[in-house]
Amino acid sequence: MIVQRVVLNSRPGKNGNPVAENFHMEEVKLPDPLTEGQVQVKTLYLSVDPYMRCRMNEDTGSEYLTPWQLSQVVDGGGIGIIEESKHTKLNKGDFVTSFYWPWQTKAILDGNLLEKVDPKLVDGHLSYFLGGIGMPGLTSLIGIQEKGHITAGSNQTMVVSGAAGACGSLAGQIGHLLGCSRVVGICGTPEKCLFLTSELGFDGAINYKKGNVAEKLRELCPAGVDVYFDNVGGDITETVIRQMNQNSHIILCGQISQYNKDVPYPPPLAPDVEAIRKENNITRERFMVLNYKDRFEPGILQLSQWFKEGKIKIKETVLHGLENMGAAFQALMTGGNTGKQIVCISEEFTL
Fold first, then answer.
1. What sign has the CA pseudo-torsion 333, 335, 337, 338?
2. Looking at residues 134-152, what average pLDDT do you find?
3. What is 80-114 written as a DSSP string?
4. Predicted confidence band at 263 (pLDDT cuts at 50, 70, 90)?
5. Cβ atoms within 10 A of the Cβ of 348, count?
6. How many other CB atoms are found less than 10 A from the CB of residue 338?
7. What angle do CA 91, 290, 73 make, to 5 degrees?
């Protein structure tokens, strides 16, 4: 069987901006027949995420991320349906997911590396398992629970950068649900600001490309900032830290503004900002959701419950076709998405 796949065509360089041409689509023949423990899957949805920028480098800078290899198939979060199985616990028609799903239309995979998913948890929106009720949702929920130190009724203010992205859009909503009295988002367009306040319940939104971010923060966070959900790093983060309260907390989720630069993770702060952080006892600890796998199952159930009750809204930006994987990634890295960036590979399935 001939299928299509996407391989890494070139590297942008540690300090370069990724472009669609870094990826290349080609045809390949699937091995036949299946061996014991294997399944053949049809790919339904593929995830595009900021951390993937690190995998484009020969050295990812992280012990838990392996680099993509030139001329080899790219992989990441994916959802698919089993078409044929030689695995004792997986059957034809099962929906499955993996964090290392190959970017190809169909694939032969080791069934032991797949996780079965229940469409009822997402009311049939299978792609949500790659976003709001998947890794981004878990990252937001567990990150806030572990590093945010929110106490209901204590009148805390949370600021979220990258607030219209996959994690940020959920983090603001979860911050409210867990007890923050005020949530302010920072994003890059007027449309995203309106989306945060009119649809997601943020109390305020700041367009960092227009006006003075520091002034807007003082206006929207008159009591200072107690919790900062950081998705971007750089100048925005340093501006927020300057307005954080004594004994406040940074949830270090991502640093997308720094991913095209050859800097350590987490990137060091400017000396004067680091001095403020230390003087005010502001915590800034690295957070890795993969260290909390025992919390994944209850976390998914909590997110699913909130979604079904209408307490969280999930937003996606969807492109169609494997040929658009590179374009989707380039758009993600330049803020072209609202919510989770998803590529639909096939919608030919029956729930």
1. positive
2. 96
3. EEEEEE--TT--TT-EEEEEEEESBSEEEEEGGG-
4. low
5. 8
6. 19
7. 60
